[in-house]
Amino acid sequence: MSGPSPFIDKAYDETMSLLVEARNYVAFQEGVDQRSLAPGQRLQVSYESMRVTSRLTQVMAWMLAQKAVYAGEMTQARAVGEEFALSGGEICSDPSGPDNAELPTGLRSLLERSHSLYMRVSRLEDMVRQAVA
User: Fold this and answer.
1) pLDDT tens-digit readout, 77-122
2) Exposed e or buried b for every residue in 47-83, given b needs 16+ CB within 10 A?
3) Residue spans per domain, the chain
């Protein structure tokens, strides 16, 4: 099989970049942002940070399966199985968060971009499943 499509490569790079950015936010900025927040708002920040993490790990796992297909390490039929399917759809596809002005700006940006990426990859997953079926 030929190499990954430009979309897969671009989405993989975007996912990796967002993963690093999310890691840096949680490691270095989240605590600073939470100092001035009420307990309920701190809980919301933690919840939304986990939503970002969930989206990105789901997308990265799917991307790695697709890269394995293009490397000849796995069949596309296996890659579209439940083992490698995007999951957490109810939580990950929920677009809320970026419009919440009480959340820190950096987190709102991560929420918006991770949601956009998750939804694009979800549509791509649907197209791949239809092509295999």
Assistant:
1) 999 999 999 999 999 999 999 999 999 999 999 999 999 999 999 9
2) ebbebbbbbbebbbebbebbbbbbeeebebeebbeee
3) 6-132
Q: What is residue 71's three-state secondary structure?
A: coil
Claim: this prediction has a pTM higher than 0.90: yes
Q: Is domain 6-132 given the CATH code 1.10.8.930 in the classification? A: yes
List Cα–Cα distances, 4 to 11, 69, 86, 123, in angstroms: 11, 8, 19, 17
Q: Which of 119, 120, 128, 121 is nearest to 81 (CA)?
A: 128
The per-residue DSSP string of 11-68 comes to: HHHHHHHHHHHHHHIIIIIHHHHHTTS-HHHHHHHHHHHHHHHHHHHHHHHHHHHHHH
Q: Are 104 and 45 in contact (CB under 8 A)?
A: yes
> How many other CB atoms are there within 10 angstroms of residue 26's CB atom?
17
Q: Are 76 and 8 in contact (CB under 8 A)?
A: no
Q: What is the per-residue pLDDT across 20-43, written as a single tens digit (0 to 9) for each?
A: 999 999 999 999 999 999 999 999
Cβ-contact 122, 23 below 8 angstroms: no
